[in-house]
UniProtKB/TrEMBL annotation:
Protein name: RagB/SusD family nutrient uptake outer membrane protein
Family: Belongs to the SusD family.
Cellular compartment(s): Cell outer membrane
Matches recorded under InterPro entries: SusD-like_N, SusD_RagB_dom, TPR-like_helical_dom_sf
Length: 521
């Protein structure tokens, strides 16, 4: 029998049994388990908690950077796997593309099987009061991942019963039109909205406002401005969310996990064996002169020259997002074997491009490093606990700032600009936190610029470029300096790179994926 990663569900139903609430545990769904387990709210919530962390690792770690920020011109990267995303020369054999595909179809598979099992449990007399909200959580995750799938690949498979497909041996599943993939995602999010609670006592668990917010984002992507505005307004009117004052703090300390700005975050844990459960952005972004015996740092991703030129003078988000000459963090006091380095860092971490490498200096290709999701050199050195490549900070995938900017853009709609008071209030709330002057008129280009710097290095800007349409995306991309501090470089962008290719390995297992898409509905 052929093995097809997107249709298998960890051996269909053979996963580990667990009653833990931890986000990384994976429960069994066989018939014996359904008879004897998932009889309490804690047991059922333990099942759906598995969707919040571990399954996202393959996308969140590197594929998210490569696709969301290297490809969009926000990040510069070396090595072999990432530069093709900057130069638009990536192929279907890309490891980043394969990783993203596996993650989203794995989550889609888990949620599908969970929903089937929970419906079966209800049929056995299971308690609807806690089973139905769990099913709604699954609908949210399935809707969210198919929203990603529709934006990343355009036309793509939709699989709602991977267990049945695996057992049947029929893997000839086609790609469906992007409009159908996005419609499927929206239908899932509507089911989540209807079934999720208004609030949840456990920080980080989904509520219906997370579903409304994700729907607003999808409606905006589809240029359905009326519905985007309505859903964003519902989140705003709920009064459950707000911007937090410390923009930088959201991204360099896990004490801000599940803060009042976060609608949906990947949940992380630090354990004695944190691989997969820990956040691994700290080493991929952290500067090499911040490395200690507790925290690895190899700066795989750094800010591009173009994003450095995108910040307005006085924008407080720059220091919260980027380390560059003069950037300091007094609480962090890293040490290594070099006494000159230790003297240089004695009063706290300094980002210095003049000091000699090894003595405390750092002088990379763009003379800068990403500050977001870098939590420091480890607990011994004034930061928080870091275990090698792993930290415990959550990764936010939907923030209240996004809702405010979605609302402002949706008010403009198909127009060019607006002076609408509510749209201005939403837009200027984001700018005010950044320390910038408010605007009395805003255009779509204003919002696109604001979104770029607000969500820099959060894996979102590619989707903002993509939804502008090819002509405008090409115009923006080909003006971006994607070179180094020494040599400028400007890319060429062609239409074939608007969406990612299906991974070559998947086509080998399912030749239907290489054929023209068909309708799902």
């Amino acid at each position: 029998m052929k093995r097809l990663s997107i249709y298998t569900f960890l051996g269909v139903l053979m996963v580990l049994a667990s009653c833990s609430k931890k986000y990384t545990d994976r429960p069994s769904l066989d018939a014996t388990t359904l008879q004897n387990y998932y009889n309490t709210a804690d047991e059922v919530r333990g099942l759906t908690s598995t969707l919040y962390g571990l399954p996202w690792a393959g996308y969140e770690n590197r594929a998210m950077d490569a696709i969301g920020d290297v490809m969009s011109g926000n990040e510069y990267s070396g090595g072999n796997d990432d530069p093709p995303f900057s130069s638009f020369s990536f192929a279907s054999t890309s490891v980043r593309i394969a990783d993203a595909w596996k993650v989203f179809y794995k989550i889609g598979g888990w949620t599908s099987q969970y929903m089937i099992a929970l419906e079966q449990k209800k049929g056995m007399g299971g308690n609807k009061s806690f089973i139905d909200p769990a099913i709604a959580e699954c609908h949210f995750f399935r809707g969210a991942v198919y929203f990603y799938i529709g934006r990343l690949w355009g036309d793509a498979p939709i699989v709602t019963d991977p267990g049945k497909a695996a057992l049947s041996g029929n893997f000839n599943i086609p790609r469906y039109y992007q409009k159908d993939v996005l419609r499927f995602a929206l239908e899932e999010l509507k089911l989540a909205e209807a079934g999720l609670p208004e609030t949840d006592p456990q920080p980080g668990r989904l509520t219906r406002y997370a579903a409304k917010g994700m729907m607003a984002k999808l409606y905006l992507y589809n240029k359905d401005y009326d519905n985007a505005k309505a859903k964003a307004q519902e989140v705003i009117n709920s009064k459950q969310y707000d911007l937090i004052d410390d923009y930088a703090g959201m991204f360099n300390s896990s004490k801000y996990n599940n803060n009042k700005e976060s609608l949906f975050s990947i949940q992380h844990q630090l354990t004695t064996d944190p691989w997969g459960s820990g956040n691994q952005k700290n080493p991929d972004r952290g500067p090499s002169n911040l490395q200690t015996d507790e925290a690895s740092m190899w700066q795989l991703y750094i800010p591009s020259m173009d994003i450095l030129s995108a910040y307005e003078t006085g924008d407080l988000r720059r220091k919260g997002s980027v380390m560059e000459q003069g950037w300091t963090k007094p609480d962090w006091k890293p040490k290594n074997a070099n006494s000159t380095y230790n003297t240089f860092m004695a009063a706290g971490y300094k980002y210095d491009t003049v000091q000699k490498d090894g003595d405390g200096g750092i002088k990379n290709t763009t003379r800068s490093n990403i500050a977001k999701y870098v939590v420091g050199p480890g607990k011994t050195y004034g930061g928080e606990t870091v275990l090698g490549a792993n930290s415990g900070i959550n990764t936010m995938l939907l923030r209240y700032a996004d809702i405010l900017l979605i609302y402002a853009e949706a008010v403009i709609g198909a127009g060019a600009s607006t002076t609408n008071a509510e749209a201005l209030a939403a837009f200027n709330k984001v700018r005010t936190r950044a320390g910038l002057a408010t605007k009395s008129t805003i255009t779509k280009d204003d919002i696109l610029q604001e979104r770029r710097v607000e969500f820099a290095f959060e894996g979102d800007y590619w989707f903002d470029l993509q939804r502008q349409g090819f002509d405008k995306a090409k115009q923006i991309i080909e003006k971006q300096n994607r070179g180094t501090a020494d040599v400028a470089s400007y890319p060429k962008f062609t239409k074939e790179y608007m969406y990612l290719p299906v991974p070559a390995g998947e086509i080998l297992q399912d030749p239907e994926l290489a054929k023209e898409p068909v309708g799902y509905y």
